[in-house]
Amino acid sequence: MSSVVVSVLLWHAIAVLLLSNLASAEGIEATNGGTKHRGEVIYVHNGAVATDDGRCSRIGKDVLREGGHAVDAAVASALCLGVVSPASSGLGGGAFMLLRLNNGVAKAFDMRETAPALSCKVPF
């Protein structure tokens, strides 16, 4: 089995574990979508987590509350989104991130998806 396949399977397994933990902790099914979970912004001391799904925002919040930093929370939230909304996130997806470093400097990251400069229509 190639290392790429193993990596993809590992990331999906981690995301499933995160969601099963959330479902058991909060009494909701991991597949329970719908608008009541959408658009939530969850604030924690000195931070905020916002995703398209409130369950994923709560996972990011929990990472921050347990001592993780913003990038840890972003990765955990992104893994969750890959499970609850696979059609709109995952490999090839884009993102934006605002990050305030310990020294007070704010950084903005534009991680929008773009096609490779030498791409052509043939492979697609």
TrEMBL record:
Residues 1-25 form the signal peptide. It comes from the Eukaryota. GO terms for biological process: glutathione catabolic process. Its EC number is 2.3.2.2. InterPro entries: GGT_peptidase, Ntn_hydrolases_N. Keywords: Acyltransferase, Signal, Transferase. GO terms for cellular component: plasma membrane. It holds the Pfam family G_glu_transpept. It is an enzyme of class 2 (transferase). L-glutamate binds at residue 112. SUPFAM superfamilies: N-terminal nucleophile aminohydrolases (Ntn hydrolases). GO terms for molecular function: glutathione hydrolase activity; leukotriene C4 gamma-glutamyl transferase activity. This is Gamma-glutamyltranspeptidase. It comes from Glycine soja. The lineage of its organism: Eukaryota, Viridiplantae, Streptophyta, Embryophyta, Tracheophyta.
